[in-house]
Amino acid sequence: MKTYLVTGGAGFIGSNFVLMQRQAGSARIVNLDLLTYAGNLLNLKSLEGDPEHIFVRGDIGDRKLVRDILEKYRPDAVINFAAESHVDRSIDGPEDFIQTNVVGTFHLLEEVRRYWSGLSDTQKGNFRFLHVSTDEVYGSLGPEDPAFCEETPYAPNSPYSASKAASDHLVRAYHHTYGIPTLITNCSNNYGPRQFPEKLIPLVILNAIEGKRLPIYGDGLNVRDWLYVEDHCEALQIVLERGKLGETYNIGGRCEKANLDLVKTICTLLDEMVPESPGCPHSTLITFVKDRPGHDRRYAIDCSKVERELGWRPRESLETGLRKTIQWYLDNPEWVESVKSGEYREWIARQYEEREERMV
């Protein structure tokens, strides 16, 4: 059995990847996560007692800790999910994003370089460093612009996307300079189980079933491509196994949707799935709030490269993925309560409730 070091494996995408790997029995997982606001050990509750899932609390920027993990567990691959990842938080406090996404990735790469240099030639050839990034590094698209492809120039517009762009460049440089066998993926907006509810889809689901207002930035016409998290995790495994070293692969859901239309779709599904909820019909809860600074208008991913070269395609449509997502939040009230800490409530108030609003 292979061993993977997964960084950020208690967060949203990372935990789904870890669970998928352990359910398939395909790899032993060493899971390194600092457990900041979005990391949640309840995401990994089903792995309690699993001897092939080793959890270590710590920072990718802690060089000694990373070195000790690499030497002790001798991983065949490192999959780097660890990142500060919310645009609004990056606007509110960019320093954490620079420290984790840029400096942290640098320290992780340095320790991986040290570890990889000591491997045998065969082990070096089999090793992989997979860096999970975002489509936001490419900037914003106009309504008629072609979707982002792997050759699209980087043009980040927020501290978050700039920090991720910097980390992508570091990973690329470590391949070309030192020969480390790296892979980079840039994904579109993920959604699904275990997503921290500062993000749009879980925020709308949880607010709606409690009869609270559904805040939408600006005019609601900002467009995103939506990717179900388990589809993304399947793509990552395929890239890890068959991706060409030094390459970047864009992973998307082929599902562009304006935020307002997305929220209305969720409301329609909730009307059907939770008709007894106090907010039904849920679309009456939609509220427009002041737009955030530098809000990118449109993202779209051209994922034809990963489809053509590696044979991956998303399984879920937006409706089937949203149904599964809504059902998961309905079925997991313990998880929902665990994230409603004082910090979370204060964050939501600061970002949405204090903004000037107008009703639909």
Any overview of this molecule?
Helices cover 44% and strands 17% of the residues. It has 360 residues and is α/β, with parallel strands linked by helices. It has a domain at 2-192 and 227-253 and 299-315: 3-Layer(aba) Sandwich (Rossmann fold). The chain has a seven-stranded parallel beta sheet with strand order 3-2-1-4-5-6-10, sandwiched between helices. Strands 7-9-11 form a three-stranded mixed beta sheet. Strand 5, helix 6 (159-178) and strand 6 form a beta-alpha-beta unit. Helix 4 runs parallel beside helix 6 (159-178). The longest helix is centred in the first third of the chain and has 23 residues, at 95-117. It is globular and about 60 Å long. 43% of the residues are buried. Residues 355-360 have low confidence and may be disordered.
* Helicity level: 40-55%
Instruction: Provide the gyration radius in Å.
Output: 20 Å
Q: How many strand segments?
A: 13
Largest sheet: 7 strands, parallel
Poorly predicted parts: 355-360
SS summary, helix count:
13
Supply the helix-strand structural class. alpha/beta
Shape: globular
Mean pLDDT: 93
Strand order of the largest sheet: 3-2-1-4-5-6-10
| CATH class placement of one domain | Alpha Beta
CATH homologous superfamily classification of one domain: NAD(P)-binding Rossmann-like Domain
* Proper CATH architecture of one domain: 3-Layer(aba) Sandwich
Cα separation of the termini: 55 Å
Encode the helix/strand succession as letters: EHEEHEHHHEHEEHEEHEEHEHHHHE
CATH topology of one domain: Rossmann fold
